[in-house]
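Field log, afternoon session.

UNIT: design team B
ACTIVITY: writing a sequence onto a fixed backbone
BACKBONE:
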């Protein structure tokens, strides 16, 4: 957090004379400069929102009441912080919302998913499917670094013209705090209020250039002019609902995380429910299907080089990834968001994908290598996967015996 104060732990108080220099400033011109700086920092969009998130609050509370957040208890613990921005930054008056594209050039198979007119699921193969956002460098640091730089530009600009008492007021009252998916923030709502994107029926922020982008926010104590909220442009389309492998999008704008493959492979700490395992396919970290089938993503722009694919994570064989030791996992995924799930859940997810793959010697050998793994969680999912292969081979044996 950037704060023009000597003691960062002290609350920011707005003294009675704090508004004097602000009244003389051209806030519209400053907002224009903020957007220009944001473009220079690589943001696709920069908008300014107010603090009223009341339009999104009822839906969020209902989502929690229905238990659709699953085991994400932190969502329920921080309701006030999400719904009351002033609790995250005392004296906050404006929210600068940004988007940062991460989409990279896709391989042919993935382009087919985006371009096809049907929503039939691809046949699981022996290659791992990892959510696009996680194939490159961890976005948290990259996004936060850019937001911090934006805050520095902002502080330097408002201090440049100040002198004497005005400069002192700025030093005592200015504060800015950056968030990059790192705090309880209703980021999709701020994106909408700032005129960046609308909430798609899959509940993600959607623009005319698609949804392959990260969102970030910069809370500030400056009274910046607000942009107009953006209208939604989904119309009658419901390809995201039809394309969800597990039916997690239970209605337009409503997602049950307990059914979502992203939740099951990233947020869930225990066993993946057996009824969802066949539907996971080859997905070992996250799921992009609801975005991949969205027509707006045909217009996606190439993202920042920070998010370029690393370690061939867009074409890695399941058996090779399953062979990684805990040290391999930590070393090869250094700087990757995937590390947050840990080696045990990584193996859990791959075991399920191996169970959905074709029964080749390579796949069967990979499963056998972990049948006696130290982790009970891994052993249970390996046993399930082996049972899947045994069940598929049984009809073949019966057919041979009857001839």
């Amino acid at each position: 957090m950037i704060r023009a104060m000597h003691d960062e732990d002290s609350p920011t108080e707005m003294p009675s004379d704090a508004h004097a220099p602000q009244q003389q400033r051209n806030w519209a011109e400053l907002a224009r400069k903020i957007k220009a700086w944001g473009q220079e920092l690589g943001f696709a969009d920069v908008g300014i929102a107010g603090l009223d998130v009341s339009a999104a609050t009822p839906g969020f509370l209902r989502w929690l009441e229905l238990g659709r957040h699953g085991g994400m208890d932190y969502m329920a613990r921080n309701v006030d912080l999400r719904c009351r921005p002033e609790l995250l930054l005392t004296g906050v008056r404006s929210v600068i919302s940004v988007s940062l594209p991460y989409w990279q050039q896709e391989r042919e198979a993935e382009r087919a998913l985006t371009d096809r007119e049907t929503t039939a699921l691809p046949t699981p193969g022996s290659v791992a499917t990892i959510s696009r956002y996680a194939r490159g460098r961890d976005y948290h640091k990259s996004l936060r670094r850019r937001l911090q730089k934006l805050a520095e530009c902002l502080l330097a600009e408002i201090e440049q013209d100040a002198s004497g008492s005005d400069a002192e007021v700025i030093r005592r009252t200015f504060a800015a705090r950056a968030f990059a998916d790192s705090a309880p923030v209703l980021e999709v709502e701020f994106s909408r209020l700032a005129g960046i994107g609308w909430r798609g029926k899959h509940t993600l922020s959607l623009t005319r250039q698609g949804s392959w982008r990260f969102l970030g926010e910069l809370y500030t104590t400056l009274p910046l002019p607000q942009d107009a909220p953006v209208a939604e442009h989904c119309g009658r389309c419901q390809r995201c609902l039809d394309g969800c492998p597990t039916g997690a999008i239970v209605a337009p704008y409503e997602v049950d995380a307990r059914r979502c493959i992203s939740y099951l492979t990233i947020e869930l700490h225990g066993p993946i429910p057996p009824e969802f395992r066949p539907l996971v396919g080859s997905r070992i970290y996250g799921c992009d299907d609801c975005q991949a089938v969205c027509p707006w993503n045909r217009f996606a722009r190439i993202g920042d080089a920070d998010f370029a694919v690393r370690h061939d994570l867009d074409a890695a064989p399941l058996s090779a990834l399953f062979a990684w030791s805990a040290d391999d996992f930590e070393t090869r995924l250094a700087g990757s968001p995937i590390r947050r799930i840990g080696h045990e859940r990584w193996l859990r997810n791959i075991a399920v994908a191996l169970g959905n793959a074709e029964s080749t010697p390579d796949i069967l050998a990979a499963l056998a290598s972990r049948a006696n793994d130290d982790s009970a969680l891994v052993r249970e999912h390996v046993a399930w996967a082996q049972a899947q292969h045994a069940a598929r081979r049984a009809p073949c044996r019966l057919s041979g015996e009857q001839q």
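LOG NOTE: The radius of gyration is 24 Å.
NEXT ACTIVITY: expression trials, pending approval
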